[in-house]
Amino acid sequence: MAYRHVVGPRTHVFADLAALMAKATPVRSGDRLAGIAAESAEEEMAARWCLAEVPLSEILARPLIAYEDDDVTRLILDIHDAGAFAEIAHLTVGDFREFLLTASSDTLVRIAPGITPEIAAAVCKIMRNQDLILVARKCRVVTRFRSTIGLPGRLAVRLQPNHPTDDAAGITASIIDGLSYGCGDAVIGLNPASDSVSALSALLQLIDDLIQRLEIPTQGCILTHVTTTLEAMNRGLPVDLVFQSIAGTQGANASFGVTLPILKEAHEAALALKRGTVGDNCMYFETGQGSALSAGQHHGIDQQTLEARAYAVARPFRPLLVNTVVGFIGPEYLYDGKEIIRAGLEDHFCGKLMGVPLGCDVCYTNHAEADQNDMDTLLTLLGAAGCNFIMGVPGADDVMLNYQSTSFHDSLYLREVLGLKRAPEFEAWLERIGLTDADGTLLPEGASTRLIAGAPGLADRDVAA
Predict the structure, then answer these.
(1) How far apart are CA 330 and CA 33, in angstroms?
(2) Under-50 pLDDT residues of the chain
(3) Residue-level pLDDT at 456
(4) In terms of C-beta density within 10 A (0-12 exposed, 13-18 middle, 19 or more buried), how is residue 249 classed?
């Protein structure tokens, strides 16, 4: 079915819903690369006006990828909550925007199971940045394992101690450095240089020993392929969270070597371990705009809509953490700071609107037209929007993955400016060991020496080195 909108003497025609949504998307290099972006600012605005008049029920009734052709489409439609959708079923996309701007947090929680990714993406396209921030801030998605993530007025940090050779002393030094800044309440999450189970065994044990010895109320995760983590669990290794990169189409997920049944098997295996102390949210997913296009599995759909579909993959597995690695894929998909900032706000909004616990790796690659000032802007906007967690990377420069992210001290800035606290269990631990005061402020002389002394296999000379 074609869609039309008249601007002055010209009638803009959009072949179908996918084309309409693509051309209504704020400009970005990935959609241009795919040949689906609007050809002019006038066409882009005509598409947005047209999209605003489309009923939500029509979007639900017209899957962008056929039900029989894609298991992500089948998942979206099979678990759709018709009762939750009934509250908004009579609205158009434009009406839905107005509804969201005035809705309460309780209302947003109630309707989240009825919002499909295509609906979230559609309303996102007609919203200003301030709209995305305002609505996302009202969306509460709280998850628990050994710490509680997503409570109002709180911001968690993934401590990311990557090392180019998986050196145990180097990894441990980075962890202690991050803990001394009060980071790590979301997860201590390592991207390993090797994916063999034998190599990962030592890393899993290292992080688990550190958490247990220091009695840290957090969780560890090795960000390896889900099948490798399954094998690790089968061998009895200490696995807290199961990680996997996911995308918004069956074909894109296949390019990652993953299927929905594999994710289900891993989820059930992790649940059976019962390693959580305050909850059982035991999955960790990462996503990013452009992954489906990169795999040649985008089906002519814009990358922001496909990103929202990735959140639909995550949703039924009740993850502790989901984060968009917003600028990691490169300028072919998000060209400059402006595109990265917009994409980060879009991703956070869509995920939280769908009831998914969204965090963001505020990042860019060195060949993008972006710099740390752009990342400071996005970091601050996401803090205002109630982002669940951000990354903490030593020096903001990941020496293993070779990209720029946010540092340990960036979280101190955001907490001070916006009055944000850490996860409550982690905050209490920091005060108990003498690293922070009762308000969560780092003390001039904290517990760094005790942290070092408690770190297995790490001597003072290793830290100095």
Answers:
(1) 13
(2) 459-465
(3) 65
(4) buried
Is 21 part of any known ligand binding site?
no
Q: Confirm whether residue 294 is marked as ligand binding.
A: yes
Can you tell me the distance from the alpha carbon of 368 to that of 430, in angstroms, rounded to the nearest whole number? 37
286 marked ligand binding residue: yes
**Is 159 assigned to a binding site?**
yes
Residue 361 assigned ligand-binding role: yes
| pLDDT of res. 462 | 46
> Does the annotation place 174 within a ligand binding site?
no
Beta strands in 192-311 (DSSP E): 220-222, 242-245, 283-287
Residues of the chain with CATH 3.20.20.70: 143-450
**Distance of alpha carbon 22 from alpha carbon 38, whole angstroms:** 7
> Is 100 assigned a ligand-binding role in the annotation?
no
Q: Could you tell me if 190 and 162 are in contact, meaning their C-beta atoms sit under 8 angstroms apart?
A: yes
Specify the 3-state DSSP secondary structure of 194: coil
Q: What's 421's DSSP letter?
A: B
pLDDT tens digits along 324-376: 999 998 999 999 999 999 999 999 999 999 999 999 999 999 999 999 999 99
Q: Are strands 389-392 and 156-159 parallel, antiparallel or unpaired?
A: parallel
Query: Using alpha carbons only, what angle is made at residue 201 by residues 228 and 175, rounded to the nearest 5 degrees?
Result: 105
376 labeled binding residue: no
Is residue 212 marked as binding? no
The domain made up of 143-450 has a fold known as TIM Barrel (3.20.20)
Type of residue found at 320: L
Residue 444, pLDDT score: 84
Give pLDDT, residue 447.
Answer: 65
Mapped onto helix, strand or coil, the DSSP state of residue 203 is helix
Residues of the chain with CATH 1.10.220.70: 3-138
**Quick one: fold of 3-138?**
Annexin V; domain 1 (1.10.220)
Q: Determine if residue 192 is labeled as part of a ligand binding site.
A: yes
